Q: What sequence folds into this?
């Protein structure tokens, strides 16, 4: 499919849950719920002993395609921490793996690609994702919709730039040098690749939405490596294709990246209802940069979960107060939970946010 050919529009399935009292969804709509909602990126994962016990001997991607396992892992932090939203246990490379791309998650390294994609022939050889290839993920979503009660479920996908960076670099990268070089030297190749990855992300998100997720988050984890000019030229059109492609479902669309303080207005222009903010700038400053009106998510520094409680409590109180500058605020971290965090600390943070 050509990157300029829009995928067919979908309408929201009639069987979607109605969760009018959910604080997370109210805040995402720009309302003021009775309490500030809180969830944590990577809340379903390595910080939990019950997760480590369940995953023992099971490769990451195998767990992502096991409906019962992914449902149980997604539920674990909801039970333990009392958070206001669950996020689907998955990974941004799941749709690539499902489509047949030679990619795996190497412990201690991250996603690693068998053969980097750096020319037009390699781009055209990439397989397209078919909805049926992620049916196991959709089955897990259906189980969660049955088991979560009144707690909303967030689905997610990786944004085209971040997926492309992994494919081009061959794995995680500090400088994204091959990605930037291809982007500027061969823009036609870049846009072909990013367009194909937008289709992949959109197919993956629609499968989750058709199965019943209540919100989606588009992770552009590495977009902060770009200037605003490059973001708007090379990235925004493809992220916008993804976010616009799920607009008909009527669910909140969250857009998040790391180091994106200079990109926040552009990321909202891509179609975000909620702008995720990392820990590098205060939330009230983020709202100012967004023109004084915005729904934001964030933004406690994950490293401070290792600090003493008085230090952590002060930071939580500051962030909740700064979040009042926004039309709506969802408390979260400025990135994901680190593996060595004491889960009791997360439970205590969630309780404090609910008290404030």
A:
């Amino acid at each position: 499919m050509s990157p300029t050919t829009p995928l067919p529009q979908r309408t929201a399935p009639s069987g979607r849950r109605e969760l009018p009292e959910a604080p997370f969804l109210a805040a995402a709509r720009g309302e003021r719920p009775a309490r500030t909602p809180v969830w944590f990126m990577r809340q379903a994962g390595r910080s939990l002993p019950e997760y480590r016990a369940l995953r023992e001997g099971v490769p990451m991607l195998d767990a992502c395609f096991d409906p019962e396992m992914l449902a149980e892992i997604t539920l674990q932090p909801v039970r333990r921490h009392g958070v206001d939203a669950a996020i689907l246990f998955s990974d941004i490379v799941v749709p690539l793996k499902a489509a047949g791309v030679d990619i795996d998650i190497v412990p201690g390294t991250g996603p690693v690609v068998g053969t980097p994609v750096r020319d037009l022939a390699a781009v055209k050889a990439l397989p397209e994702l078919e909805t049926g290839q992620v049916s196991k993920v959709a089955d897990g979503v259906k189980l969660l919709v049955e088991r979560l009660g009144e707690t909303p479920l967030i689905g997610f996908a990786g944004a085209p730039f971040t997926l492309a960076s992994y494919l081009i670099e061959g794995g995680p990268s500090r400088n994204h040098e091959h990605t930037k070089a291809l982007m500027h030297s061969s823009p036609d190749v870049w846009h072909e690749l990013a367009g194909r990855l937008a289709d992949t992300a959109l197919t993956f998100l629609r499968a989750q939405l058709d199965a019943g997720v209540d919100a989606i988050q588009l992770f552009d984890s590495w977009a902060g490596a770009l200037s605003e000019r490059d973001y708007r030229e090379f990235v925004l059109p493809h992220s916008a294709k993804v976010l616009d492609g799920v607009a008909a479902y009527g669910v909140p669309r969250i857009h998040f990246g790391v180091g994106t303080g200079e990109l926040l207005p552009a990321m909202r222009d891509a179609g975000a209802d909620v702008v995720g903010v990392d820990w590098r700038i205060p939330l009230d400053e983020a709202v100012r940069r967004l023109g004084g009106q915005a729904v934001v998510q964030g933004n406690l520094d994950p490293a401070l979960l290792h600090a003493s409680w008085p230090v952590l409590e002060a930071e939580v109180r500051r962030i909740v107060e700064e979040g009042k500058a926004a039309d709506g605020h969802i408390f979260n971290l400025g990135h994901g939970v680190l593996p060595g965090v004491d889960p009791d600390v997360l439970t205590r943070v969630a309780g404090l946010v609910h008290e404030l």
About this structure: Strands lie at 86-87, 103-106, 110-113, 153-158, 215-219, 253-256, 274-276, 295-300, 328-333. The CA atoms of residues 109 and 283 lie 31 Å apart. The radius of gyration is 19 Å. The chain has a mean pLDDT of 94.
